[in-house]
Amino acid sequence: MSFELQPMMISGKEVLPLIEGGKGVAISTGESSGAWAAAGGIGTFSAVNADEMDDNGEVIRTVYAGRSRMERFEELVAQGISGGIKQAKIAHEVAGGEGRLHMNVLWEMGGAERVLEGVMEGAKGMIHGITCGAGMPFRLAPLAAKHGVHYYPIISSARAFRALWLRSYRKLPEWLGGVVYEDPWLAGGHNGLSNSESPDQPEDPYPRVALLRKTMNDFGLQEVPIIMAGGVWFLREWSNWLNNPEIGPITFQFGTRPLLTQESPISDLWRKRLLTLKKGDISLNRFSPTGFYSSAVHTPFLQELYDRSDRELAFVDHPADDHTEAFAFGVRNKEVFLTKHGLKQAQDYLAAGFTKALQTPDSTLVFVSPDKASEIRQDQLDCMGCLSMCKFSNWAANDRGTTGHRADPRSFCIQKTLQQIAHGDDPDNNLMFAGHAAYRFAEDPFYANGFVPTTKQLIERICSGD
To answer: Which of 143, 187, 219, 451 has the fewest CB atoms within 10 Å, i.e. is most exposed?
Structure first.
């Protein structure tokens, strides 16, 4: 092989510098993360609405009894804590004392701090580190230090880490186990693109990570490893990052490749779909109710959202400028005003069967079929507060339980679709998160003839450079 992968001290133990990326909802489980740790790496189970299991190892799906969003939110948090504890215990047992075990949480998920506290209390001694992204987790450091575990913030720029360090992390540097650089153009799931960065103009990760190392060195963090996440497939392609003073101590995170292992919980339909992906099938979009960009396979589910956004028209409440054409919509026949061209488009949408005009928070209308309108409305009513703030349902984890804005029909219920795909539904009917290198499943000879490796076999393959 073209390089030698050296063990590294991570979360208090010398292990392979290979990390399983945490994938929620219910995808990075105790089984998958425990197997990764057992093979000598760092396994990461997801505590984002983790599955509770019965004594026979069967998933206990949450059935919400609460009539209000706040009541369902409390059920969600309680289930998240019990499920997280269960997955931690499974991971601990499967790992057998090998490797390290980390827990992944999204800072912007509903009840994030309560879930973190609850799982850490209920799984004492089983978790060695907490990774956390999707937001700016300023309070991550004191929470991790309280429980005597290392913390691993997920960031996408040196500027984001600088802000976290100066505001919070500098007070507890001894528990900073590493900094996860999650490339916003390469990683799967939600991405940290800033307003000054374009989804269509990807940047080379090397100078961005080199700048992160320089920033960390300025703070005296020369020995703290950076974890490269996003786009990592063959380690031989990253050999110039090893033993490189510009990069410093480096480890690599694999989020997409562990999907296709024997210990991965994904369905056979999902496995087969991964093996058919082509370059360009994975793209960034901004439909997520979080407001973040996200990277997902371009499925019919995603195409419907693009089509929905194409049937969007701006309106005004009173005639103004070129918005002179009256248009009535909804059960109360609310009258608004469109342009002449807009009215013609609206009539075309109605004739094509998109007879329900739904108002957005931005004084626009989107046109959908009656069935889709009913589905959107029901999903909004069923909201259980899985995010700290949700554009789709207008939920917010505050005293009022609302963002104060109109619910946005251009988005979708992310909890519903991620639960469905995680528990066997057709991936084409759902949001299918994936890193941008997922097309390599079809090209990599390791997976020829539909071969699905064990996690141990995958790690051995990765260590070979391939």
So the answer is: 451
